[in-house]
């Protein structure tokens, strides 16, 4: 996983593949976005940013309220889908 986290393009592709897999299993968009939010919380609390893009995401997560974080998680899902 660490090599995936080091490169932002690789990270987006990894996420896109996971979103596609979830959709193939019948997981709906709303549940995928909820899971993305939970993953965002986990990463924020336990993982140090590995690159500039992740540092920006961390700073945005820090200043966002819950609704803004949920929006951000949904946008990350969309970004991931565009990279799968």
Account of the protein in words:
The structure is a single chain. The protein is mainly α and 84 residues long. It has one domain (2-81): Cytochrome Bc1 Complex, Chain D, domain 2, CATH 1.10.760. Helix content is 81%, strand content 0%. It is built from five helices and no strands. The protein has helices at 2-6, 8-24, 29-46, 52-63, 66-81. Helix 2 (8-24) packs across helix 5 and helix 3 packs across helix 5 (66-81). The longest helix has 18 residues, at 29-46. The protein is globular and about 30 Å long. The mean pLDDT is 90.
Average pLDDT taken over every residue: 90
Contiguous low-pLDDT stretches (5 residues minimum) are: none
In total, how many beta strands?
A: 0
Instruction: Name the assembly state.
Output: single chain
Total count of domains: 1
Distance between the termini: 18 Å
What's the short story on this structure?
This protein has 84 residues and is an all-alpha fold. The protein has helices at 2-6, 8-24, 29-46, 52-63, 66-81. The two termini are 18 Å apart.
Reconstruct the topology from this structure.
Blueprint: H1 2-6, H2 8-24, H3 29-46, H4 52-63, H5 66-81
């Amino acid at each position: 996983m660490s090599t995936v986290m080091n490169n932002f393009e690789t990270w987006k592709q990894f996420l896109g593949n996971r979103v596609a897999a979830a959709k193939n299993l019948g997981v709906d968009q709303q549940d995928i976005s909820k899971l993305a939010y939970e993953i965002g919380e986990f990463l924020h609390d336990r993982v140090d940013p590995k690159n500039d893009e992740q540092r920006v995401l961390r700073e945005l997560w820090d200043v966002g309220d819950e609704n803004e974080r949920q929006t951000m998680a949904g946008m990350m899902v969309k970004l991931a889908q565009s990279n799968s």
